[in-house]
């Protein structure tokens, strides 16, 4: 599937030098995809080369959030796949390969086969970071992906709400069990600041992400506010970091990107990625 050489992940058609990051959440709707897309843009703005694999089969949303209209290009003979790009970020969504009118029943082997194909057949070139938008929760698909990619570190997105941090905690414990290093916690929808008077309201509770970070003994990388234009930007394909890059949330995204970069490290050559026997589609 890939190899580690000189501390880098060597892919068939590219490499990853600083981080393979799986973005996880306990449940859907907490902003995992919004965070993935904006973090990618923030990293790219800091001079990094970034790719995203949209692997959340419960709702592919990265292309919509980041604003990708072009189709993924597949070369006829070689079947190599050229990712779509926006603001330099390369994006592959499993959703691009399925027909919207014929729902695919995603099971683990199918997802893993597609994932393996993306590592092998996508022309990524030289990436610093590859972000993976995982399905939410701790189901077998997530487990299988993490097992297959032992070099992936996990970034957990949660809202401060207790019900959200509880399920996010399960993701944390799963990552620990699988020996996937937790890169940190991102608390999304941490507060709402009134545009009239600047008063902060803690709509989903206060500091739940911070407490989760303490519980798991990992770092809280940032607390992102709830803002109307984040939702609007996501609907229109204008990630907020690109749209309005000097508001509270963009500054926080840029800070999170810096924190991620600070934690870059060489990939461990003693770990082995898992390969599917027989290749994609035959598992
Ligand atoms: N910080 C935020 N402020 C306002 N809206 C947000 C914020 N984060 C996410 N959203 C909105 O919440 C909804 C769910 O976000 P999404 O990223 O799709 O969640 P997930 O991937 O976890 O299911 C989207 O409509 C998105 O625009
Ligand atoms: Mg999502
Ligand atoms: Zn007010």
Could you characterize what this model shows?
The protein is α/β, with parallel strands linked by helices and 283 residues long. The chain is built from 9 helices and 14 strands. It is globular and about 60 Å long. The two termini are 14 Å apart. Adenosine-5'-diphosphate binds next to helix 1 and helix 7.
Question: Short summary of the structure?
Answer:
The chain is α/β, with parallel strands linked by helices. It is built from nine helices and 14 strands. It has a single domain, classed as 3-Layer(aba) Sandwich (Rossmann fold).
N-end to C-end Cα span: 14 Å
> Number of folding domains?
1
- What kind of sheet is the major sheet? 10 strands, mixed
The CATH homologous superfamily is termed P-loop containing nucleotide triphosphate hydrolases
Order of secondary-structure elements: EEEHEHEEEEHEHEHEEEHEHHH
Strands, total number: 14
Q: Estimate the helix proportion, in percent.
A: 25-40%
Bound molecules: adenosine-5'-diphosphate, magnesium ion, zinc ion
- Give Rg in angstroms: 18 Å
User: How confident overall, as mean pLDDT?
Assistant: 92
Could you tell me the strand content as a percent range?
A: 15-25%
**Are there runs of 5+ residues with pLDDT below 50, and where?**
none
Named CATH topology:
Rossmann fold
What's the CATH architecture? 3-Layer(aba) Sandwich
Secondary structural class = alpha/beta
Helix run count: 9
- Assigned CATH class: Alpha Beta
């Amino acid at each position: 599937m890939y190899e580690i050489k000189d501390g880098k992940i060597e892919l068939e058609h590219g490499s990853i030098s600083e981080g393979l990051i799986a973005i996880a959440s306990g449940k859907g709707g907490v902003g995992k995809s919004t965070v993935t897309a904006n973090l990618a843009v923030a990293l790219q703005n800091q001079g990094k080369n970034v790719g995203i694999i949209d692997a959340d089969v419960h709702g592919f949303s990265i292309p919509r959030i980041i604003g990708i209209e072009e189709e993924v290009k597949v070369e006829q003979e070689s079947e190599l796949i050229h990712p779509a790009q926006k603001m330099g970020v390369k994006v592959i969504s499993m959703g691009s390969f399925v027909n919207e009118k014929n729902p695919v029943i995603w099971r683990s082997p199918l997802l893993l086969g597609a994932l393996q194909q993306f590592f092998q057949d996508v022309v990524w070139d030289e990436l610093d970071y590859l972000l993976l938008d995982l399905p939410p929760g701790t189901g077998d698909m997530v487990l299988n992906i993490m097992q297959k990619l032992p070099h992936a570190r996990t970034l957990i997105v949660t809202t401060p709400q207790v019900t959200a941090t509880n399920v996010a905690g399960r993701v944390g414990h799963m990552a620990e069990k699988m020996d996937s290093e937790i890169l940190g916690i991102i608390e999304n929808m941490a507060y709402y600041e009134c545009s009239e008077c600047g008063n902060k309201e803690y709509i989903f509770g206060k500091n739940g992400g911070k407490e989760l970070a303490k519980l798991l003994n990992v770092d809280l990388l940032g607390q992102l506010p709830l803002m109307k234009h984040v939702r609007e930007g996501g609907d229109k394909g204008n990630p907020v970091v690109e749209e309005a890059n000097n508001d509270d949330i963009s500054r926080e995204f840029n800070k999170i990107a810096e924190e991620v970069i600070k934690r870059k490290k060489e990939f461990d050559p003693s770990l082995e990625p898992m390969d599917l026997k027989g290749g994609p589609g035959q598992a």
